Write the structure tokens for this entry.
Amino acid sequence: MTVTHPVRVYRSDESLPREDQLAHKIARVAADPVEVEPEVREMIVNRVLDNAAVAIASLNRAPIVSARDQALCHAPGPHGAGSALYGLDAAGTRVSPEWAAWANGVAVRELDYHDTFLAAEYSHPGDNIPPILAVAQHAGRSGAELLRGLATGYEIQVDLVKSISLHRHKIDHVAHLGPSAAAGIGTLLGLDVETIFQAVGQALHTTTATRQSRKGEISTWKAHAPAFAGKMAVESVDRAMRGQTSPVPIYEGEDGVIAWLLDGPDAAYEVPLPAPGEPKRAILDTYTKEHSAEYQAQAWIDLARRLHAEHPELGDPERVESIVLHTSHHTHYVIGSGANDPQKYDPTASRETLDHSIPYIFTVALQDGAWSHDASYAPERAGRRDTVALWRKVTTEEDPEWTRRYHAIDPREKAFGGRAEITLTDGTRIVEEIAVADAHPLGARPFAREQYVRKLRTLAEGRVADAELDRFIDAAENLAELAPGELGALNVTADVELATGPKGIF
């Protein structure tokens, strides 16, 4: 059973008991020693595999090289075994957990290729895995304890995303990740409610930032933002365990997050959280990506691939008058032409910008009938003359019905696609629509364990030896049985030389 908690702003002269504060309620959920249900365990394994897949594919990309180099400058402290880094042998290289959370968080997020949950806010709840796993490795915890921590991380982030919009006020979505990761670490370590409460408040306070990181010319910080939230969550728990406190009430205070960064002093939210003794199942509401692009692009890539096969003439800009994608508010205003970002039509734009441009993504998928995390973003691919000509004929429009379906609570109604209306130069019109991506649980080819493993093997090809990959998959699939101190087995050692980059202060 889920309990819905009203949340509003309180004046300083009003009384809001600690136990009625949202951060305290989150802490109580985190401290609740419920068992992890079998289907939740299985989905957590899927996401551990998925995170490793996209991290391996990123190992020598510049943001990961930078973050890994920074992490390698920070050895573990005296009170733990340290944490592993993707690509490096866990037995030979360990770093301080907050820096492992940082480096692995960047690796997981760089390609925009792991799981997602969309509701009132946006999120990639798999971002919880790097910080919680890093602490679990450092603290010598078991697979069963890690499962409980990850179930909490997913639960809290999804519940906050369902109820509190950040993007409406141009606050980056990682403001929900700091509290969820802190709560998950609290569950993992078996901390008391008061300690988790203080950690959640600190994690929120230190991870509220603007959405400029996802606007206009999108920089390498896009991958660093969730990693920073995970790093702050680790540090917040550490401080709370040492008796340090946080701003109170962090959400509801007169000068708190809601009053000044979100809906203001008259705000009212209804936040769902599991009732005491209720299992944490929110991970089952989330979904992963078949393609390396913003989630709202997933269904559009699948539709474009289908149109490529059925109407190959649509790839020729000389034959196309216009392509209008009728879609949700978010797709139109964030990754569509409604963003009014000229960079979304710029063939010299960064990869981070192109993977947030649905006009570009739809064009390339329509011409190629396929999507690659590498080739589809290559500068020579983006700059192809016929691509640029067709790309600039693609626009988006908000459709109220697709916006309604985007926000629908019923999973059978919820949709992330839209309707494509294509007009050819000879006057022919082609109209097709798609509601969800093929890989979505309600899509044409839903992802199951087989697809997660295939994605991992595909992205690891040429980067990880077969025997090492088999060992990692076996360890992940037996996560629940890993004994205390054995969680280094959830790391993957690369079979390629890992690059290093320019030096900084460290």
Observations:
- The chain has 19 helices and eight strands.
- Residues 295-434 form a domain with the 60s Ribosomal Protein L30; Chain: A; fold (CATH 3.30.1330.120).
- The longest strand covers residues 320-327.
- Strands lie at 2-8, 117-118, 122-123, 268-274, 320-327, 394-398, 418-424, 429-434.
